[in-house]
Amino acid sequence: MNSPHLSRGSKQPPPPKSGKLRLYSNRFCPYSQRVVLVLDAKKIPYDVVNINLSNKPDWIYDKNPYGKIPTLELDNGDCLYESSIIADYLDEKYHQHPLHAKDPLQKAKDKILIEQFNRIITTMYRVMMNVGRIGLDDDEAISEGLTTFEKELGRRGTQFYSGNKPGMLDFMIWPWCERADILKLFGNQHLLKREKYKKLMEWRRRMTEEPTVKKSILDSDYHIKYLQSYRAGMPDYDFILNSK
Amino acid sequence: MNSPHLSRGSKQPPPPKSGKLRLYSNRFCPYSQRVVLVLDAKKIPYDVVNINLSNKPDWIYDKNPYGKIPTLELDNGDCLYESSIIADYLDEKYHQHPLHAKDPLQKAKDKILIEQFNRIITTMYRVMMNVGRIGLDDDEAISEGLTTFEKELGRRGTQFYSGNKPGMLDFMIWPWCERADILKLFGNQHLLKREKYKKLMEWRRRMTEEPTVKKSILDSDYHIKYLQSYRAGMPDYDFILNSK
């Protein structure tokens, strides 16, 4: 998972060993982490090829016409992309450790919440990548979104959104929750007031103790260091190789 | 389906008859039409409540926190939104006339194409609603997108994307294909050259002959008349009541 990020001019790695899936990924990409979490939760064998997103190898376009990650390469050479499509595919194809609710209605409700979470993602992305300081609109979008998720956890009355263990909704929102502390760097004091989101904070603590989450989690320090390199115009994806 | 579009101040309609789903919709909304197509293809009983989008009734916010359509109301009062989530829900919940491929890989590939079609949708929306004339970038986005779909139909070698009858992918892209001729009003001569998209044009003709499509299809004249009212700042959703 912490292999070097391959750049333009790098040799294309040989195909994965038979029976293994191959994930084209990036260690700091939250969408890639979604797929990693699903693969790990379902205990599906895979290997990872990390891609340098600021200087992509040409051959990534043979896997994905847009050269985007995450891209999942199958046994037969077929490639899938879009994190939520890959996640749904894996859950349908591999029956062990099901992540989506069995009931179509509950599944649809969870998918609506994943969709709603996109508003938080968009705002976080804008704040972390482009804008130096959080504005009032961003504040509102994030706190409105988090309030929805806080209430929903209360309404469900379970440890995780999916019950007594994390499921698809938990994993689809996790990568951004893992990075939430970074917002403090750019946000105002009121933004992530823990007392407003007690249940979410408890959920977040529980998630960090899950074996699946532990496999890919990074401390905020790492996320911040990466973000600083990104904002300085020279994203450094590989510093983690020397530090971990 | 052609009932009047209800506005602010209008009385909330009584719940649907038992066993019927209720679709909050708009006769000219392509996303709503997606759900209509799925309901009709699967022969699921439903009724329609049309919403005036430029002057929404307050009670629509009880059904959907964003007041958006399409919103599907279930027997038990639960409401679902987001057209593709509703479509997937209906296909999972109601087993008759399945629309998605059974094979998870084929289903994922179809979902990637639906996702790719969003680029065409975004461009069409921008062109039809805001910008008077198509620019070169828009040209390219649309012709690149259509070329993908033209080639895909050739690769599959079937009458419809889903085989010998239309399936989820066919229905998810149809509402914008139904409206494609409108682009000529705003586009340049080269945009929709039929000879570039022979297979797509054949597919489109076949789609217009499908009973499911016939139930909701409108002539380009209607779409143009609606669009003109929209662009003039006074969207008229109800002229169709007097003309059909």
Comma- or semicolon-separated keywords:
Glutathione-S-Trfase_C_sf (chains A, B), Glutathione_S-Trfase_N (chains A, B), Glutathione S-transferase Yfyf (Class Pi), Chain A, domain 2, glutathione transferase activity (chains A, B), GST_Omega/HSP26 (chains A, B), Glutaredoxin, four-stranded mixed β-sheet, 11 helices, 4 strands, alpha+beta, glutathione dehydrogenase (ascorbate) activity (chains A, B), 244 residues
- CATH architectural name of the largest domain in chain A: Up-down Bundle
Straight-line distance between termini of chain A: 11 Å
Q: Helix/strand/pairing class of chain A, anyone?
A: alpha+beta
Approximate strand percentage of chain A = 5-15%
The top level CATH class name of the largest domain in chain A: Mainly Alpha
GO molecular function, one term (chains A, B): glutathione dehydrogenase (ascorbate) activity
Domain GST C-terminal (chains A, B): 103-239
Domain GST N-terminal (chains A, B): 19-98
InterPro entries (chains A, B): Glutathione-S-Trfase_C-like (IPR010987), Glutathione-S-Trfase_C_sf (IPR036282), Glutathione_S-Trfase (IPR040079), Glutathione_S-Trfase_N (IPR004045), GST_omega (IPR005442), GST_Omega/HSP26 (IPR050983), Thioredoxin-like_sf (IPR036249)
